[in-house]
Specification:
globular
Length: 113
Amino acid sequence: QELTFKPFPEALKEPTYQVSDFGKMNRHRTLHIAFQALHQFVKEYGRLPKPWGTDDAERLVAAANKLSEEEPPTLNEEPLNEGLVRKLANVAMGNLSPINAFIGGITAQEVMK
């Protein structure tokens, strides 16, 4: 069986979404734009937005708004959810290692019982 996909630049402009959480169906378009804005932020500043940094969050929202204006079909007439973009900016630098270590420790303890 051979799989074929759209070229990457075309897929960025006209994405196909795989919806897995039907309670949050309105988020996938905003997140598509927000992650593109996040990549632009890293390219421009050489770092991720500071945790809970309002200046960085507003820069990311501005970049996402600019992208949504340049590529309006991506949002399909939905307004950009700026609150969701701010949340992404606030936690983009987060590290899950401590949580993973905690869960791994509990799992190992349960296995040993």
